[in-house]
Amino acid sequence: MYTSGKYSSRGPALIPRMKTKHRIYYIILFSVVLLGLIATGMFQFWPHSIESTADWTLDRHSVHDAPLIRLPVSSPIPERGDLSCRMHTCFDVYRCGYNPKNRIKVYIYPLQRFVDELGVPISSTGLSREYNDLLSAISDSDFYTDDVTRACLFIPSIDVLNQNSLRIRETAQALAMLPRWDKGMNHLLFNMLPGGPPDYNTALDVPRDRALLAGGGFSTWTYRQGYDVSIPVYSPLSADVDLAERQPGPRRYFILSSQTAIHREYRAELERLKEENGEAVLLLDKCSNLSQGAASARKRCYKGQVYDYPQILQESSFCVVLRGARLGQAALSDVLQAGCVPVILADSYILPFSEVLDWKRASVVIPEEKLSEMYTILKSIPHRQVEEMQRQARWFWEAYFSSMKAIGLTTLQIINDRIYPYAARTYEQWNHPPVVKCSSVNSPLFLPLIPPRTPGFTAVVLTYDRVESLFRVITEISKVPSLAKLLVVWNNQNKSPPEESLWPKISVPLKVVRTKENKLSNRFFPYDEIETEAVLAIDDDIIMLTSDELQFGYEYFNYLYTYKMPGDIKNWVDAHMNCEDIAMNFLVANITGKAPIKVTPRKKFKCPECTAIDGLSLDQTHMVERSECINKFASVFGTMPLKVVEHRADPVLYKDDFPEKLKSFPNIGSL
Asked: Is residue 531 a contact partner of residue 452, using CB atoms and an 8 Å limit?
């Protein structure tokens, strides 16, 4: 009975336990499925924020399918525009944040159709083909994001490229209704044709608060330096006409003017130039004997003779770009495409992308009052420089003018460089074609890349017979930590160097090279004894430099000076015993496109022990020759490569009141 009872008590207890276990399992499974269905339903039917999920493509949002937004008459209007705006006052850089690619993120508002209370659109043209191409290019770029919370820059889908098609008040109201407008902060508007009759303002008349403006006709009065971006006026012919690149060189005409509707005073002045210079000047106008239309827009005439436009532009070395009712002219783009050097006469005009492009390399800017002197001015430019400008003009068009995509992405890159200056494109990247073509010298970037055999630098001291001064220079240079070797170039063939025992005892190898001829260019010869990548070239009378100043900076261009110096410059230097330092500066500036860097604050280089007998520079004719050699070198190079610079490199803590032992370079000369 006991055993049977024990079994009976356990048996019935096991069955309910199994049922409970399965019940819990099915309850959990059902709950998971139910929650999944609920979540799916909420995702499908919950009201989404249109600005956080909409992706801008015309395939998904055609103009006709775009939502219709009515603007109440009482809708707010933005302020006119703050001329004092700069990136640090009207732009929130903290929106951009840090990202590993150092690239801003750009959000494009979804396409909407704005109308007033009567149903009249704010624009007579809606979304233009050009603006559609611009937005499509941005949406396909690495700048684009469809996540509004990640955006650094916001671009409205409201087309304001052409102010002629806009209702000013209503367009401003539409901008103010944008969800993230916030007084235009971090918003970018693109406009190519600003203003309207009769005064034609040089900036968009639509009130826009603090928004950045990429404008195609800025003047110095309306352009906010470092905030707005000056862009070109796009030429529709860029897409319709394929002009093959023409090799730089002389053309059939020297000057060509192809713009129509030029002010009568300018037209009269151009006609006088034509009379004075004959066939060298071609003055074109619209064709009065052709019916108006697309075909006539691509024709120009002179005395009944018809020319194809813009093809005729390729037949001239220089092409005139005069201001019209607006400062910005589409003709500039046509001229660049033709590889014709633009001669720009538009006072106060801010040239496109002038923040990064060096227009002196591709154009000639002449004040309007000097139009009558244009022929003489252009004739003074050397042929070689004209060819370089023709080549640069064509490349500017290809890189920055050729399409709405090029214009849009260049604008964003400029803004990107402001926000991430440490990762910005360099002057060379903006202004040098991908394949560098230097007609005078080769870039050192294309020389054989050979790793230096020895770290540090070699000091090359040119001397004649100033032994005492030479020894002082050697003693001072030897204190420089990075000095690897000291090479003395003995330029005196009539006198032997001092005996070995008389030379200063220094911790690095010292080698004396005796030259065969007394030439200043011997200082820049690439001697076999030089085993370092960097070389310091110094005279034997530069006794005032300290070891800290020498340690602070040096450069290497000896190979180019000896073997790649253009023309007869090196021979001229050797014959006149002068200007070798200027020749080296011409060479380096021509190759790099950069100005020299003044290292340390020292102003005066003077040898107190030197007399007129000892030093070449103390001769009375020395400075006169140096002026002559600048003109000589500029003629040989075909340009003036030297650049003005207001920059000086000083060591950290140089002027700070810190103990000398905390400074890396304590012994820096004073002003």
From this structure: yes
